[in-house]
Write a structure and sequence with these properties.
The chain is α/β, with parallel strands linked by helices. It has three domains: 131 residues, 3-Layer(aba) Sandwich (Rossmann fold), CATH 3.40.50.10860; 127 residues, 3-Layer(aba) Sandwich (Rossmann fold); 159 residues, Rossmann fold, CATH 3.40.50.300. It contains 16 helices and 17 strands. The longest helix is centred in the middle third of the chain and has 22 residues. The chain starts with a strand and ends with a helix.
């Protein structure tokens, strides 16, 4: 292996894709491989030194340190290394996570200067966060742990009771990560003065913690930009850049340009486009057109329910009732929302349950296809909108819910191609 990532479990890593894009954008394409190592394999791997440069992830960021001939100052302070460069058999260790987290926070417009910061978790990323907070002039930093190990940490109960006036929360725990994306590490409402929430998790793209923060108008960001930024800095070190060069204005501008390009591409590729709206508003048709234009796979939640139940929706309503149907719908939405890069057309009542909206938003941009009532047509295969009166009642009951649930609203009172182009335009602006 020339370049790559080592860790214990890496089935969902984005790193290979990110490094491919970095090389492509910098016109310096190179092979980057993912290598899973058992704990008993690390020693021989590091001693063999059969690589030019590697990134290191959980649980080996501290394990590799004894094998290094040189460790940079940031890595020493943090106590973790995530980038190793082999220079003629001499191993140099760096922590580019520092740059990644610093960039994530500043790009999101979250100020730490003079602020009280809570850092959730005590692992290697927590130590990186603490170092970043000090360099960004935080007034006070409090590490939150599930157990009271010593006086350097506080418990979650103490955070609620004595630090409810905190300004910023940084989550470095895995709570809320796929596949347990509905978990949340703290209750946002217990911190009324919050101005920012940083979550280093990048799968899903929007954690429950972030969604709760956004619902209260609090700035929030996910760890994908951190992942991209640290990768670009690692790439620069792999390619002979010295650590003291990376913050020079010209070099920093070049790095920032690559980060922006790669982040935008990866985020767009991973993002689901979720279409909501009344029965007959055009979700399925718009979804198919978007799938063709973006090269994404398209799924219709009503069709997924029919496939799962092996019967039509009208039959489910007739024999089991609406509550049973909604339960199946929630299961289907929870499952499909864990995917990336999908077009998802939802049933008319999908947004009626808050857990459905949260699931759809975890990896998706929710778009309300707003078709005027007088252009909606009732049909027999829609049990909640099979005649004009029912359709009108559903429209009046649900319209504000659609508006509240969506990230983007697009009018559908013209040609379908105009609607599709409007969706694309608004996505590019979001």
């Amino acid at each position: 292996m020339q370049y790559g990532l080592i860790g214990e479990h890496l089935p969902h890593s984005f790193s290979k894709e990110i490094h491919r894009l970095i090389g492509e954008y910098d016109k310096n394409e190179y092979a980057y491989d993912i290598t899973e190592l058992r704990p008993d394999e690390v020693d021989s791997f590091m001693k063999k030194k059969d690589f030019k440069g590697i990134n290191v992830t959980i649980p080996y960021k501290q394990t590799v340190i004894p094998y290094l001939d040189f460790t940079d100052d940031a890595a020493k302070v943090i106590g973790a290394v995530n980038t190793v460069v082999n220079k003629d058999g001499v191993l140099y260790g760096y922590n580019t996570d520092f740059y990644g987290l610093r960039d994530l926070i500043t790009d999101a417009g979250i100020s730490l200067a003079g602020k009280k910061v809570l850092i959730l978790g005590t692992g290697g990323t927590s130590k990186t966060a603490s170092y970043v907070c000090r360099t960004l002039n935080a007034a006070s930093i409090h590490i939150v742990s599930r157990s009271k190990k010593d006086d350097s940490v506080i418990t979650y109960e103490e955070a609620y009771e004595s630090h409810a006036d905190s300004d910023v929360i940084i989550n470095t725990t895995p709570v809320g990560m796929f596949p347990k994306a509905d978990a949340i590490p703290v209750e946002i409402e217990r911190f009324p003065l919050l101005s920012g929430v940083v979550d280093v998790i990048y799968n899903p793209l929007r954690t429950r913690l972030m969604l709760d923060a956004s619902a209260k108008g609090i700035k929030s960001c996910c760890g994908l930009r951190m992942l991209v930024t640290q990768a670009v800095y690692a790439y620069m070190l792999f390619n002979g850049k010295e650590k003291n060069m990376l913050d020079l204005p010209e070099e920093a501008a070049h790095i920032s340009k690559i980060v922006d390009k790669v982040y935008k591409k990866v985020y767009g590729d991973k993002l689901n486009i979720v279409l909501t709206g009344m029965p007959g508003c055009g979700k399925s048709t718009v979804g198919k057109r978007l799938a063709d234009k973006f090269g994404k796979r398209q799924f219709d939640t009503d069709k997924l329910i029919v496939d799962k139940e092996k019967r039509q929706i009208t039959d489910i309503f007739a024999s089991e009732g609406e509550e049973y149907f909604r339960d199946i719908e929630s299961d289907v939405i929870k499952d499909i929302s864990t995917g990336n890069g999908l077009i998802i057309s939802t049933g008319g009542g999908a947004v009626l349950r808050k857990e459905n909206v949260a699931a759809l938003k975890s990896n998706g941009e929710v778009i309300f296809i707003d078709r005027p009532l007088d252009k909606l047509i009732p049909t027999d295969d829609r049990p909640t909108a099979s005649d004009v009166d029912m359709l009108k009642r559903r429209y009046e009951e649900r319209y504000n819910i659609y508006c509240d649930a969506c990230d983007i609203k697009v009018d559908n009172d013209s040609l379908i191609e105009d609607v599709v182009m409007s969706v694309i335009q608004k996505l590019s602006e979001s």
